[in-house]
Amino acid sequence: MSHAEGPDHRKLLNWDELVIGEQLPTLDYVLTQEMMDEFRLGVMDPEAAFPTISQKVDVRPYHLVYRDDGSVNARCSFHFYNPPVAGKRIVVHAWIADKYARRGKNYIVTEAVSVDEDGRLLDRVITHELKQPSEVGKKWQ
Fold first, then answer.
1. Under DSSP, is residue 85 helix (H, G, I), strand (E, B) or coil?
2. Are strands 105-116 and 121-130 parallel, antiparallel or unpaired?
């Protein structure tokens, strides 16, 4: 995520000090029909029901707080409960769900839950990210 204007006040990620359970900034937006239409066009499915995933709510709150050397998506799971409705406000709560090291590589897990203005649970997204992207190509060197 680039920040073209002004100084970058986000914290540099220190994996050792990262706290499991840390709450990340809440996102709040109105899902428009245009957003739904663009998502459906992008996934080539005129009836695609969950455009909330295109908002990247699973990792955007993390990037509002932290800066790092980048990441590689290691795994992502989506759980869909109720399709969102155009015109409804959606609130997304996100947090650091876990961190772990595997084969000398550091990973973080973010979790995000989207709820609409009527209190309906829309989705839950759990994302595992390798926080050492330079490690990815090493096995082929």
1. coil
2. antiparallel
Q: Are 105 and 132 in contact (CB under 8 A)?
A: yes
For the stretch 77-124, pLDDT in tens is 999 999 999 999 999 999 999 999 998 899 999 999 999 999 999 999
- 108 and 96 Cβ atoms separated by less than 8 Å: yes
Determine contact, residues 99/15, Cβ cutoff 8 Å.
yes
Question: Residue 70: CB partners within 8 Å, gap ≥ 6?
Answer: 133
CA atoms within 13 A on the CB side of 31: 26
Options 3.40.50.620, 3.40.50.720, 3.10.129.10, 3.40.50.300; CATH for 21-140 is 3.10.129.10
CA angle 119/121/124 to nearest 5° reads 145
Query: How far apart, in whole angstroms, are the C-alpha atoms of residue 115 and residue 81?
Result: 10
